[in-house]
Amino acid sequence: MKKCAITGQETPDHLAVPLSAIRPLLRTFILKRHPDLPAEGWVSRSALDELRSAYIEDALQNEIGELTELEREVIDSIRGRELIAERPETEEEEDRTATFGERLSDRIASFGGSWRFILLFSGFLAVWIILNALQLFGGKAVDPYPFILLNLLLSCIAALQAPIIMMSQNRQQDHDRKEAMRDYQVNLKAELEIRHLHEKMDHLLLNHSERLMEIQQYQTELLQRILGEKESKD
Asked: TM segments (predicted)?
């Protein structure tokens, strides 16, 4: 058991990290907050996670200024080691959560923006114009040229279709905005984790280089001692 220098609680050996093994930037931040920590002290992983989250929050505030709720959710996910990515909803799941008006607007917008609608409506216009131009309605045109009734009908369709399509577009924009927010959170967390990994790799490489230098120096001293003993024997 190791005693955490931050909380003062006993911690199992596998859940404790020596202060000297923490990467330099994070160790500097910890010592700034706790200047009385011993150089050979140990820190529990739970306390280290809290300090790491505070370090990330401080770094983000220095880089982008005041943090929004999105950034704080990312920091909380790092603190709790939780996933922040979500599985996208299927079309059936979206239909179940949508209201009847939203589903209806989506269907009308989908049909109104298809070639099927264009062909059917073009055929309707052609039939209407031909029948009234040739006066095939019992010898009397219902809507003679210049087809005022047809213009009224088209105006009514356009007046109703436009807001319905806008409703569907607004719903799609809200969906895209939520997706963009989730993508931003995932990208931000990935960037922070990669930065943390780079700092850890740099710390490991530095310690490894120092260790190799110590071994090389020890080997040099040992070789010199062997050569000195050999010369003294000769």
From this structure: 117-138, 144-167
